[in-house]
Specification:
The protein has 71 residues and is an all-alpha fold. The chain has helices spanning 6-14, 25-41, 47-70. Helix 2 runs antiparallel to helix 3 (47-70). The longest helix has 24 residues, at 47-70.
Length: 71
């Protein structure tokens, strides 16, 4: 599975019954990172998928935090 967007990461998590919605975008992304790490440590997600998803999440967390600082 190609990881290009947060939606792709959500679909990966959804395959394992993980749905994340807190209502705060940064918190959602951070919780998705925690859930992704758990799946990887349980050897349910391949290393390449994990790395790509993790990079996307961290990039988007940084973007969202930057937006919050501008407001």
């Amino acid at each position: 599975m190609k990881m290009r967007t947060i939606y792709d990461v959500q679909q990966l998590l959804k395959r394992y019954g993980v749905f994340v919605y807190i209502g705060n975008r940064v918190a959602d992304l951070q919780l998705m990172e925690v859930e992704l790490r758990e799946l990887y440590q349980s050897q349910l997600v391949e290393a390449q998928e994990y790395k790509m998803a993790l990079l996307l999440l961290r990039k988007n967390i940084a973007i969202e935090k930057e937006k919050e600082q501008e407001d």
